[in-house]
Amino acid sequence: YPTFSQSLSQLFLVLFPPFPGPFPSFSLSPSLLFLVLIPAFPTVKPRLDIERCPPQQNWTEGQEGILTCNATGTPEPQVWCSKDGNSLKPGTRHPADRAHAGTYLCRASSELGTAERNVTVWVQCESGARGLGANWDILGSWGSLDSW
């Protein structure tokens, strides 16, 4: 549900008479006017939903990988993700590597709060030279049977 920010830079100033009679008259006398602050636009806390920030993402080793995680909210939240103390900016291209496999904590923040989501990245690796096929290794990425 929208909430209203108290930031003065986001408010409109509206003046109106306190008790207009049967014939409205708008006196500019300061003693007869009320001051009302109305938000310029509703503010909305950051939100990470499944469509914009999928909890499971698949990359292929050696190709470009893009961590997809976008947030909604007003004002627009900043989004960043990290795994084991290493940051990965969502939406940027990276050469996919087995080291990218794992669970990232993605955060969307604005002055209204923070939303968090775990995103698991699976990295599919090339199969071994003997063509034995691919299996899941214990790190959650694809690895050939040769690597066991």
From TrEMBL:
PANTHER family: INTERCELLULAR ADHESION MOLECULE, INTERCELLULAR ADHESION MOLECULE 2. Pfam families: Ig_3 (PF13927). InterPro entries: ICAM_VCAM, Ig-like_dom, Ig-like_dom_sf, Ig-like_fold, Ig_sub. GO terms for cellular component: plasma membrane. SMART domains: IG. The keyword Transmembrane helix applies. One of its GO terms (molecular function) is integrin binding. This is ICAM1 protein. The chain crosses the membrane at residues 23-42. GO terms for biological process: cell adhesion.
